[in-house]
Design a protein that fits this description.
The chain is mostly beta strands and 274 residues long. The protein is built from 1 helix and 17 strands. A 12-stranded antiparallel β-barrel has the order 1-2-3-5-7-8-9-10-11-12-14-17.
Length: 274
């Protein structure tokens, strides 16, 4: 079966199952976890650490697969959060694995401290380290700065809306041949999450990304893309405080190419520090 048909069928089947099982009384507790392509606006609770892994298979691309590991820590309460994001990519030629530019992240819980209220906001500031090789396209070659603003809004009993917007500035980014120019990347997106059960979510992310790159003559070009990402995730609570959240989705580029379908696998491990 085609990957797109398989994932779509999986989502529809899951919706049918939870629609039959969903209670009609009080709403279940929400899974407050990271999204697949975007951010939820909830910092880590005091004394709890989270390890997040995302694997994405992209057939036909220069880097046909990508893996991202993120570690999040409260500092020391949920008012502040530190994290690090390490990306890896598989190079189709010569078949090697490369590290990308590592992010050092700080977030402040501007709204919704302690998980209170119907709206949460957690602005993030990141330093982008030049750990990736610009000669292969795995990095930009210099330090960059990234900002992102995630907002999470409860919509009634069974839905949450997440909204993101941000940008990345890289002064004197390198082209593959070593020419430099300042680049500006922008991103925006929304995600609607349905949580009919305490352990199960259905979600749809819509992501727009506009990335600027440096040509070998020192000029810059831009690539824009609009991606829809339907998916599912569920929580497994283990005695001792460990929560495991696996997820599966199918990012679909609907513009400008249209029809490009990827496969994304998500895994979060969250547990007390002591």
């Amino acid at each position: 079966m085609h990957r797109r048909s398989f994932v779509s069928s999986l989502v529809l089947a899951a919706v049918a199952v939870v629609a039959e099982e969903a209670p009609g009384g009080e709403p279940p507790a929400k899974i407050r976890d990271n999204l697949f392509l975007l951010e939820e606006a909830y910092n880590q609770e005091p004394g709890v650490v989270q390890h997040i892994q995302v694997f994405q298979f992209q057939p036909g691309e220069e880097f046909p697969w990508g893996y991202t590991f993120t570690e999040e820590w409260p500092a020391p309460t949920d008012l502040h959060q530190w994290s690090v994001t390490v990306p890896l990519a598989g190079d189709a030629d010569p078949g090697a694995t490369e590290i990308g530019d590592v992010l050092l992240n700080y977030r402040i819980q501007a709204l919704g401290v302690g998980g209170e209220g119907w709206i949460a906001m957690a602005p993030r500031l990141s330093i982008v380290l030049p750990t990736g090789d610009y000669e292969t396209g795995a990095g930009r070659g210099v330090v960059g700065v990234q900002i992102n603003l995630p907002v999470s809004i409860d919509l009634g009993k069974w839905f949450t809306l997440h909204v993101n917007g941000g940008m990345t500035v890289t002064p004197n980014a390198f082209s593959l041949e070593g020419r430099t120019a300042t680049t500006l990347d922008a991103n925006a997106g929304t995600a609607l999450v349905w949580f009919p059960l305490t352990w199960f979510n259905v979600l749809l992310e819509t992501v727009f990304a506009s990335n600027e790159h440096v040509h070998d003559d020192g000029s810059t070009g831009r690539h824009d893309a609009l991606v829809l990402n339907p998916g599912v995730r569920f929580a497994i609570d283990v005695p001792g405080g460990l929560q495991i959240v696996p997820g599966l989705s199918s990012p679909i580029e609907v513009w400008p190419e249209g029809g490009n379908v990827d496969l994304l696998v998500y895994l979060s491990l969250e547990h007390p520090l002591w």
